[in-house]
Design goal:
With 748 residues, the protein is of the alpha/beta class. The chain is built from 24 helices and 17 strands. Belongs to the carnitine/choline acetyltransferase family.
């Protein structure tokens, strides 16, 4: 690399007179500054480790305890009840140390042990307090006395000014549900999807599993839960993400859209500079742990921040059996046209095609084999290493995307497809960050949404542009120039593009920007916005396919240490009964009553999922244990093979304080989306923005004759109108369901 040669600190030549040594002052200066930066980072990490390690106490509290103990000693009282004297007797000190000095040292040692004991006690108390979840099941505005006391205690034991990871040691471990409860909830979830004979057969399989093999598998799972911080996360990452063998370009990636109605600058490089500048500002705050810990908005309840550790500087490399995660450096790779550059400069597509990619475009096994054969040495290996070790990958797209032209809806659909897969050769699907393509990878979408929203806000409202649309500030001409990465592409590698293009061409996408009403009107009907949308999706799917299906709604378990996600099975007997009643022409009063029942059931399932009593992660782990033991379970095998024909997820809205939706309503994003999970199903991501807009990202496959993203979008629009008309205030009855206090995600 040319910049590597430029960075050499000295050169020497051998002459008859000896060695002629030539030093580079600029290179030595850079080496010195690099060392200073490295030590600053180490000191910051050490300081943060100490602060986090003693939380909820503070390092200064140690001095307070020492002074308090010494003060009581000088009043001739012994707060240690003889322990200081015992320490002094066994203190290995020099004979030259006076008795008074030995007493002081002993008191300091006792104070330190007392301080550590207090920290352990406070952390244990906080952990027990955070294990209390009954508050989530109470009706809004009707907080019990127990919960009020609990809130006060949490505030007391939570400490002051926590860093990003301060609460990690105080979060409770994810509990293991009983096999009986999980099997019972599972059977309830499949009842509306099966006829009597199918349900009877599944009940028999479940009963046999519960009474025999289930207890054996549960024992091993409980043993793991005692040993590990989270009995799900490591297996979920290993077997769902790293061992998945299908291409992730459409099957697993997600994306996020830029502002729809404003273009901060028409200059591509300027938008790139500001956006990535904001991106690195966020990364610096993250590395210094200056970001406030995530909490359930409106509460004092902290959420796990473990996923923040892997948002940046990681890449996943393919293997024939399993992939692996590797750390990356801080240079940047940029793709412009058909050329890839290795650079420390920063450029970006001007419409901010931002998302996270951590996958390969092609099937994992062939790509792993091709990588070993064609990218294991030579120029290909050097170029691939530069990409995989980059901090992130930037794509400069040639085509303008967004809400454009005479048909803005069609342009949004094309925009979504471009974000997800691009041209199938202009995305680095292995780097942890690619500005142009990215569903759930190993990083939670919530964390990416937080970073994405921070970047958008910082770019427009803090950094800004000058009158010509350029970045503010002066150009640093001392930066090394970009270097072109060269490749030797074998014909069989080029053929892989055909596979990726066929996968991308099969994807049908539709973005529905619903502006007729939003969560404001829904909440006036005393209904959870999330439950409202889920009921609308059930109604739309039934109208579209004349049947019900297994429905996946992503929930989270970040109330627990290393918590990730859980599944809410939104298709229930209650929701099915409501849809059938509405479609069957039942009286409005009957339909409203059934809707309330279905909404309450959905809320209950969401609460259970958040508090560790979900169905699917428990069954998944039981299945993994059965594979380790080499035993077959017909029940688990059938459960894990059921397709999710309707996969849904709400894009979270975080850091609302960064945006002024009243004075600047045009600065809004359309959210993001992902591909369908099943070949004959739909993927639906929805973004509840403000009080008057809900955006839907709908995906399916052209190859399935029973799915059509645009037709399903039309059914969703009609279902939303039908439900709000049913629940309109003029016909509203007193709600039987109070909004729960856990409505943090839905109410934002």
């Amino acid at each position: 690399m040319a910049e590597a040669h430029q960075a050499v600190a000295f050169q020497f030549t051998v002459t008859p007179e000896g060695i002629d040594l030539q030093l580079s002052h600029q290179a030595l200066t850079e080496i010195y500054l690099s060392g200073v930066r490295s030590w600053k980072k180490r000191i910051i990490r050490l300081k943060n480790s100490v602060i986090t390690g003693v939380y909820p106490a503070s390092p200064s509290s140690w001095l307070f305890v020492v002074i308090a103990i010494l003060a009581t000693m000088y009043t001739r009282s012994d707060p240690s009840m003889g322990l200081i004297a015992k320490i002094q007797e066994h203190l290995p000190v020099s004979q030259s140390m006076s008795t008074q000095c030995q007493a002081v040292v002993s008191a300091v040692l006792f104070s330190t042990m007392l301080w550590l004991l207090l920290i352990f006690t406070m952390r244990l108390c906080l952990k027990q307090l955070l294990s209390y979840h009954r508050w989530m099941f109470e009706q809004h505005g009707k907080m019990s006395t127990t919960t009020k006391v609990w809130v006060a205690l949490v505030r007391i034991f939570s400490g002051r000014k926590p860093l990003l990871y301060s609460y990690q040691g105080s979060l409770p471990n994810l509990p293991v549900p009983t096999v009986k409860d999980t099997v019972k909830r599972y059977l309830e979830s499949v009842r509306p999807l099966t006829d009597d004979s199918q349900y009877e057969r599944m009940t028999q399989l479940a009963t046999e599993f519960e009474s025999s093999l289930g207890n054996r598998l549960q024992w091993y799972l409980k043993l793991k839960a005692l040993w590990a911080s989270n009995y799900v996360s490591d297996w979920w990452e290993e077997y769902v993400y790293l061992r998945g063998r299908s291409p992730l370009m459409v099957n697993s990636n997600y994306y996020g859209m830029d502002f729809l109605y404003v273009t901060p600058t028409p200059i591509q490089a300027a938008r790139a500079g500001n956006s990535i500048h904001a991106f690195f500002l966020y990364r610096r705050k993250l590395n210094r742990e200056e970001i406030k810990p995530s909490r359930i908005p409106g509460t004092v309840i902290p959420l796990c921040a473990a996923q923040c550790e892997r948002i940046f500087n990681t890449a996943r490399t393919p293997g024939e059996e399993t992939g692996k995660e590797t750390d990356m450096y801080t240079h940047i790779d940029a793709h412009c046209g058909n050329v890839v550059f290795d650079t420390v400069l920063i450029t970006l597509h001007p419409w901010m095609l931002m998302s996270l990619v951590s996958s390969e475009m092609f099937p994992r096994i062939p790509w792993a084999q091709a990588r070993k054969k064609h990218f294991g040495s030579g120029v290909n290996k050097r170029s691939l290493d530069c990409i995989e070790r980059a901090a992130f990958f930037v794509t400069l797209d040639d085509d303008e995307q967004g809400m454009l032209g005479d048909d803005p809806e069609a342009s949004l659909d094309r925009y979504a497809k471009s974000l997800l897969h691009g041209k199938c050769y202009d995305r680095s699907e292995q780097d942890s960050e690619t500005y142009s393509g990215s569903k759930h990878c190993r990083h939670l979408s919530l964390q990416i949404a937080v970073r994405f929203q921070y970047t958008l806000a910082t770019d427009c409202f803090q950094l800004g542009y000058n009158a010509e649309g350029h970045c503010k500030g002066e150009v640093d001409s001392s930066l090394p120039r970009p270097q072109k990465l060269n490749w030797e592409i074998a014909p069989e590698i080029s053929q892989s593009l055909t596979v990726a293009q066929a996968l991308a061409d099969d994807l049908d996408f539709h973005v529905l920007s619903f502006k007729d009403f939003g969560k404001g009107r829904v909440k006036r009907c005393r209904v959870s916005p999330d439950a409202f949308v889920q009921m609308a999706l059930q109604l739309a799917y039934y109208r579209n396919r004349r049947t019900f299906c297994l429905t996946y709604e992503a929930s989270m378990t970040r109330l627990f240490r290393e918590g990730r996600t859980e599944t809410v099975r939104s298709c229930t007997s209650e929701s099915s009964a409501f849809v059938r009643a509405l479609e069957g022409g039942e009286a409005a009063e009957v339909c409203r009553r059934l809707f309330r029942s279905a909404s309450e059931k959905h809320q209950q399932l969401y609460r259970l999922a958040m508090t560790g009593a979900g169905i699917d992660r428990h069954l998944f782990c039981l299945y993994v244990v059965s594979k380790y033991l080499g035993v077959e379970s017909p029940f688990l095998k059938e459960v894990l093979s059921e397709p999710w024909r309707l996969s849904t997820s709400q894009t979270p809205v975080q850091q609302v304080e960064l945006f002024d939706m009243v004075n600047h309503p045009e600065y809004i994003s359309c959210g993001g989306g992902f591909g369908p999970v099943a070949d004959d199903g739909y993927g639906v991501s929805y973004y509840v923005l403000g009080d008057s807009m809900i955006n839907f990202h709908i995906s399916c496959k052209h190859s399935c004759p029973d799915t059509d993203a645009h037709k399903f979008g039309a059914e969703i629009r009609k279902a939303l109108h039908d439900l709000i008309q049913l629940l309109s205030p003029s016909h509203r009855e007193p709600s039987k369901v109070g909004e729960s206090r856990h409505e943090f995600k839905k109410d934002l």
